[in-house]
Amino acid sequence: xxxxxxxxxxxxxxxxxxxxxxxxxxxxxxxxxxxxxxxxxxxxxxxxxxxxxxxxxxxxxxxxxxxxxxxxxxxxxxxxxxxxxxxxxxxxxxxxxxxxxxxxxxxxxxxxxxxxxxxxxxxxxxxxxxxxxxxxxxxxxxxxxxxxxxxxxxxxxxxxxxxxxxxxxxxxxxxxxxxxxxxxxxxxxxxxxxxxxxxxxxxxxxxxxxxxxxxxxxxxxxxxxxxxxxxxxxxxxxxxxxxxxxxxxxxxxxxxxxxxxxxxxxxxxxxxxxxxxxxxxxxxxxxxxxxxxxxxxxxxxxxxxxxxxxxxxxx
Length: 315
Fold this sequence. Notes:
The chain is α/β, with parallel strands linked by helices. It has nine helices and eight strands. A six-stranded mixed beta sheet has the order 4-1-5-8-6-7, sandwiched between helices. Helix 1 (3-29) packs parallel to helix 3. The longest helix has 35 residues, at 65-99. The radius of gyration is 30 Å and the shape is elongated.
């Protein structure tokens, strides 16, 4: 093989490998640590090119310089491109798998879309053995700007949240997937209990006579609630992690945590529980935001991040 051909091949190798090495080095700086893969890639490319050159060199003494240049360079360049393409694809696949947070494959979340089409004004005990009673399930609020009832919004949000969690390995169970049900707050909690949920997530929206009030709140069982002592700590951990993630979202106004001992949905629950008031439907701008799919998905992504963090904290 002529000296010019060898020089040409060397230049192709350098022009191809250096940009790839630079890209992978940049990934390393961003915390992806692909240095080992860079070395392997360079070795594979060099090995592949060497093999191609060796195979092309056999029997080429009878060829002219012009006939040698074209096939050798073409085959070597093609080999480089194929090897690089293969490595880039494998690296991209590995990077996605590494970035996706692992979740226990047995982690179960029961999502409860608050309310239903028709309220049930019948009474039920506020907690096991309680003499005090509360309405089984109220009708909820409605959007002042959209006119959308809370029970519709909560189901829309719950289904989005469920899909986000399922994509990350969580087993999701819904207390309802339609508006035409008759489920009391006690019965909703019992669905979580019966399924041995790792977390019972209740989705709601707020309302106020003051239309200026807005913001997301996370409700959690009270420390001094006689019915929720066994789940208080884990419930608080989940609530706090969800709140922490929503605080990172610049699009969402976050009010904080509220401790509640008067909610039968908490009091009947034997598993860690949290309730998210996504915002005020009585505030015109927030009501519109909550009916915007992009905003709602963005908000629920932060909530799902908090739930994943809770799952990982219990490994």
